[in-house]
Amino acid sequence: MAKDVRCEVNSCRFWAEENHCKAESIFVTMHSRKEPSKSEETDCGTFEVK
User: Fold this and answer.
1) How high does pLDDT run on average in the chain?
2) What is the per-residue pLDDT for 19?
3) Phi and psi at residue 46, to the nearest 5°
4) How do strand 20-21 and strand 28-30 relate by DSSP bridges?
């Protein structure tokens, strides 16, 4: 499991200094029903606005 999750979205309540994510777990979703083949085709389902 990743110990150092990075995130640049500082409007998320889980964002911490130096672009660290302080969420206990991360949920990644797909943009569409097609299986993603690159990161741009996914979204962070863990995001919550500050």
Assistant:
1) 93
2) 97
3) -80, -20
4) unpaired
Long-range pairs of 46-49 with CB within 8 A, sequence gap ≥ 24: 46/12, 46/14, 46/21, 47/9, 47/12, 47/14, 48/12, 48/13, 48/14, 49/11, 49/12, 49/13
Q: Nearest CA to 22 among 38, 37, 9, 40?
A: 9
Domain boundaries, the chain: 1-50
pTM confidence score: 0.80
Percent of the chain at pLDDT > 70 equals 98
